[in-house]
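Course assignment 3, question 2. Fill in each field.
Student: A.L.
Task: Predict the tertiary structure for the chain below.
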Amino acid sequence: VDRAADRILSVVLLVDPDDALVEAAAATGAGWLQLHGAESPARVAAMKAATGRKLIKALPIGGPEDVAAVPAYAAVADLLILDAKPPKDATRPGGLGTPFDWALLDALDPSVQFLLSGGLDPDNVSAAIERVRPWGLDVSSGVERTRGEKDAGLIGRFIARARAAHNALEKAAS
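Answer field:
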């Protein structure tokens, strides 16, 4: 982290961490902590105050009640990731490569900045940007050749299509 600090933003990803783990994560020198568990808004605020680090909170979206919870987290986190709610039998957090119904975000205050996540890939990223207009994107499995193995060609296509969709929106707005 120290050697790369002037070139990249470093992020430590945590799931339902206890105070000792939060302290250890902050001690790495990483600039951001990313939370993917069931942390409440009060817990997020407490971690931010205790560490002085910027916080990203991932929120699972599966229905209107999940979107209704977003403002409470937007008030305490520096950035949000809106991801698909994991299936009931999931063994880990996250959408696990599945998109959610983006129409649910129509109810969200447009001033809330968030990264869109959940099932994004080169084939749907343009539609996602046009429909949702997120502040940014978070992609993982959608650019993998096999689980855990990123594919440079898929990454390149994803970025090219995301840029083209963004540029088209910018052009339409001007």
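Instructor remarks: Residues 62 and 99 are 10 Å apart (CA to CA). The chain has a mean pLDDT of 92.
Grade: pending
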